[in-house]
DNA sequence: GGCGTTCTAGAATATTCGTAG
DNA sequence: GCTACGAATATTCTAGAACGC
């Protein structure tokens, strides 16, 4: 557990977030969360790449991607206010005619722009890992927010 | 329970009360209660916003909004008319032609102008929350923290 | 519990399945399960109808619809392809140019074509209903099938 | 054993309806 | 009338569980 696996989910997500090729995943304004355009993500990450051999993920279902985010401790932040200012003007349709869908805003304390050093703390929340993370503390209360809908 | 959920009812109500865009919800003279113009509220908050994707609430019924107020501990103050004196001059029809309706006057001890710190005490009156509010009884079973959410 | 609520989920789903207007939900070949085209369903049921006031559901998320199916006891049947033979000819794009997505195949013993009388048994799987369904059995094991995958 | 994918369920809030007071 | 609340369903986010690799 000293380095990150470049083929595992955290590294893949990091590359997606910092890639200029994939526009469906990007940092929010403060670089502390991810904005994910569901429709565009399904098109350019899950489905298109699956045609050739360059698939990033094996799944074609967006829900499986969300399950991964949750398994690695990401939490959904907000629905309405996840939109960045410049997106509010265009109102749902980009200038290039590519329709955009709902934006999901996810956050993890170990996933911040310009802080690749934090990635090593992104652990899959298995029973073993959960026990190691808080071996004596109450595992129920979440640090920042009580519920995030 | 350390911060408020910006997507839950208390935060939405707070933003409505302090917004200059929405005129149907405003503080009363002492900043200790809310004045809600039913007709205007239905128009500008429930129905108009529902057309695009910017709905604050999913409901279009004013009574559902009232149910939320009650669920969060608000109580209606005025049996008769909660109209403030200076508002009576306009008397039912604003200068811009927008008709105004009856004003509802609601109050909660945890919802005061200039006291956003009190918002954390605005709890939904579920059975679980009510049990916690009245200790001494065995709520259900919260030894350490059996749940993860 | 003597009649069905025409505004609740089972009745809505029944109308969708038998409607010729909505093409995204239809019976499978034997009339014992539902085939649901996700992309088309989102377009014609969840999003389009939400623009005017004719929304069938309040949600715009397909996952919320799936949650309802599971809450009412529906189970997913096919993991691979639920596509019926005659649908394979069109192969992903209908004649009118509307792209079709993955088909979900769901089944409930109480939801069969030409058997509207069974609908009354479609109960929401709340704790109360589950207790009534099996008032002496272990509540964890499912009646017919242990797993459906 | 860990990880990824899939289907289902838990739990909290939101919405609706009815009705007690 | 009319205010408040119980209860049922609906929606949302997260987690459990099973399986394959």
Automatic annotation (TrEMBL), chains A, B, C:
GO terms for molecular function: DNA-binding transcription factor activity; sequence-specific DNA binding. Residues 5-125 form the HSF-type DNA-binding domain. One of its GO terms (cellular component) is nucleus. Residues 129-149 are annotated as: Disordered. Keywords: DNA-binding, Nucleus, Transcription, Transcription regulation. Belongs to the HSF family. PANTHER family: HEAT SHOCK FACTOR PROTEIN 5 (PTHR10015:SF278), HEAT SHOCK TRANSCRIPTION FACTOR (PTHR10015). This is HSF5 protein. It comes from Ramphastos sulfuratus. The gene is Hsf5.
